[in-house]
Specification:
Layout: E1 2-6, H1 11-27, E2 32-37, H2 43-49, E3 53-56, H3 68-91, E4 95-98, H4 104-113, E5 118-122, H5 129-134, E6 140-143, E7 158-160, H6 165-170, H7 174-181, E8 189-193, H8 200-209, E9 220-224, H9 230-240, E10 248-251, H10 257-263, E11 266-269, H11 273-282, E12 286-288, H12 298-308, E13 312-314, H13 322-333, H14 336-349, H15 354-368
Parallel strand pairs: 1-2, 1-4, 2-3, 4-5, 5-6, 6-7, 8-9, 8-11, 9-10, 11-12, 12-13
Helix pairs in contact: 1-15, 3-4, 7-10, 8-9, 8-13, 11-14
The structure holds uridine-diphosphate-N-acetylglucosamine.
The site of uridine-diphosphate-N-acetylglucosamine has 27 residues, from helix 1, helix 11 and helix 12.
Domain Glycosyl transferase family 28 C-terminal: 190-356
Family: Belongs to the glycosyltransferase 28 family. MurG subfamily.
Protein name: UDP-N-acetylglucosamine--N-acetylmuramyl-(pentapeptide) pyrophosphoryl-undecaprenol N-acetylglucosamine transferase
Length: 369
């Protein structure tokens, strides 16, 4: 089978596309994949590293207020559709799959104009602008939360599949997670990640929390700062460290995240939908600080779905401080029974068969062609 994948800007859109590509390649060995993204998005680096062919188009997102930039975006969209048609005409895919982010717009739209079967995957409870726009043109939609289906009621084939990232983390090697962090097997550790790009508010809280961690003996802390915040955060952490610095590990980005997640005891992060799919698939308890800077405040809706089920503690960013974070960490790490209950609730929300459900939908769309 020949499949075009598109989606990006941030990891939350890229990794679901890669997980779908992986499922296709495993189920139909010899399949050909082409990823279409932008050269500025994280995908331009991550996708070629996975050995998948990559082509780029130039496109930007719409701004919410009226501006000349939006006029330029319309021009870029038209040019992007033209370039996508050329790329699709050359590659001749059986199906085009979009996983959100504005790069999907011209690619999936062009595919639908060319009569190529199209599918979009929505990761969040509240759909993004691009997927809402594309919903008028696509042949199928896969959603990650049951309540999102209502936004796509005019689409022909809507399935509640979950997020394919949930499938890829289950295949991860836990021992390699410990090994890559330089930790002895089964060392308990708290993993803190502010999404694929890092989060300044979370990094600041970590720096405040670091002097307190001596009060939680035996537990390691893995801080992933995001590339752009790494240098300043790492320096600030080193300055505020107490004596036991060998329990603190700081990284700009982690490339083997599924392995590291699989080994972790507690997750602290934003409430990006792909991460949430991964931690629930593995049954990891979490403390979530949703980003208030996203469309329709969708991360709070994402986080609430875990908090309501007892799988997570949610802290709103306005209430975030190093002390608040420390108190929650201490009470979860220090109470195995509570941790167990949260872990069970987390696992109960996991949808590990997501990639397979989406693969079946791809086959259905291909056969209907
Ligand atoms: C600021 C913003 O717009 N965030 C959106 C973005 O989040 P963001 O891009 O942060 O995505 P998520 O938090 O959902 O997922 C991050 C993905 O990147 C991977 N990863 C992350 C860090 C790292 O060091 N290594 C690594 O591999 C994770 O395993 C995961 O697969 O897309 C999500 C999915 O549509 C949305 O819910 C978020 O609201």
């Amino acid at each position: 089978m020949r499949v075009v994948l598109t989606g990006g800007g941030t990891g939350g859109h890229i990794y679901p596309a890669l997980a779908i590509g992986r499922e296709v390649s495993e189920r139909q060995p010899g399949s050909s994949l082409l990823y279409i993204g932008t050269s500025r998005g994280l995908e331009s680096r991550i996708v070629p590293e996975q050995g998948i062919a990559f082509e780029d188009i130039t496109i930007t997102g719409f701004q919410r207020s009226l501006s000349w930039e939006n006029v330029r975006t319309v021009v870029r969209f038209v040019q992007g559709v033209r370039r996508s048609k050329q790329l699709l005409g050359k590659f001749k895919p059986d199906v085009v799959v979009g996983t959100g982010g504005y790069v999907c717009g011209p690619v999936v739209y062009a595919a639908s104009r060319l009569g190529i079967p199209t599918l979009i995957h929505e990761q969040n409870v509240i759909p993004g602008l691009t997927n809402k726009f594309l919903s008028r043109y696509v042949n199928g939609v896969a959603v990650s939360f049951a309540e999102s289906a209502a936004y796509f009621d005019k689409c022909p084939d809507v399935i509640f599949a979950g997020n394919p990232c949930a499938t890829r983390v289950l295949q991860a090697n836990r021992s390699r997670g410990f090994e890559s962090l330089g930790m002895a097997p089964e060392t308990p550790f708290v993993l803190v990640v502010g999404g694929s790009g890092g989060a300044k508010a979370l990094n600041d809280a970590i720096v405040q929390m670091v002097p307190l961690i001596d009060k939680i003996p035996g537990v390691h802390f893995v801080f992933v700062t995001g590339e752009r915040f790494y240098k300043s955060t790492e320096e600030a952490i080193q300055r505020s460290l107490p004596g036991s610095s060998n329990r603190v590990h700081v990284f700009p980005y982690i490339h083997n995240m599924p392995e590291v997640l699989a080994a972790s005891t507690l997750f602290i992060g934003r409430a990006g939908a792909s991460f949430l799919a991964e931690i629930t698939s593995l049954g990891i308890p979490s403390i979530l600080i949703p980003s208030p800077n996203v469309t329709n405040n969708h991360q709070e809706a994402n986080a609430r779905s875990l908090a309501d089920a007892g799988a997570a503690v949610m802290i709103l960013e306005r209430d975030l401080s190093g002390k608040a974070l420390f108190d929650h960490v201490n009470s979860i790490v220090g109470d195995p029974a509570r941790r167990g209950i949260m872990a069970k609730a987390s696992k109960g929300l996991g949808m590990p068969n997501a990639a397979s459900a989406i693969y079946e939908q791809i086959i259905r769309l291909q056969q209907r062609k």
